[in-house]
Amino acid sequence: MSRKHSKESRRIVFTLPAPLLLRAIGADDQAFLSELYASTRDDLAAMAAEPAFLAQLIGMQQRMQSQGYRSAFPDAAYAIVERAGQPIGRLVTEADGARLHLVDLAFTPSARGQGYGGSVLRALQAAAGARGLALTLSVLRANEGAARLYARHGFDTVASDDVQLRMRWSAP
């Protein structure tokens, strides 16, 4: 099934507060992205299986996520979040005429809990608010820490199912 692209589809450019920097993903980022993805899959890493099998399974899941994002969000912008010249996270967003959608935000284990997620959210909120757009996202119910972070930053749950919450923030 094809998806029609709105003429209003566009990428929203914004900056992050120091010491964070947002940059485009390059070919040399693939090893970092693989490590980052693997760090988010504790569910798979905890399986009682051979390390080679787990690495193959996690790699397959990463490829499926990438294909799913590209299919569901064909106009998405992909970026690396850096601190002091080192990659610490990935941000995926897609904008259309009515909203800025946070597709994915992930940080390395050492960068989690340091306030970087909140910094990125505030920058996204400022960019969306300046354009009169809502900021939307979906989060897995199992990712309780992320859901709490979004709620602390003013996101409201607008729909839910057994697997995920759909959340929305609108400028005051």
Walk me through this protein's architecture.
Residues 20-172 form the N-acetyltransferase domain. Keywords: Transferase. It holds the Pfam family Acetyltransf_1. There is one protein chain. The chain has one domain (20-169): Gcn5-related N-acetyltransferase (GNAT) (Aminopeptidase), CATH 3.40.630. It has five helices and seven strands; from the N terminus they run E-H-H-H-E-E-E-H-E-H-E-E. It has helices spanning 30-39, 42-45, 51-72, 116-130, 144-152, and strands at 20-24, 77-83, 86-95, 99-107, 134-140, 156-160, 164-169. It has a seven-stranded mixed beta sheet, sandwiched between helices. The longest helix has 22 residues, at 51-72. Mean pLDDT is 89; it is low at 1-9.
Number of strands: 7
CATH homologous superfamily heading = Gcn5-related N-acetyltransferase (GNAT)
Let me know the average pLDDT.
89
Through-space gap between termini: 37 Å
Just give the CATH class.
Alpha Beta
Number of helices: 5
Major sheet characteristics: 7 strands, mixed
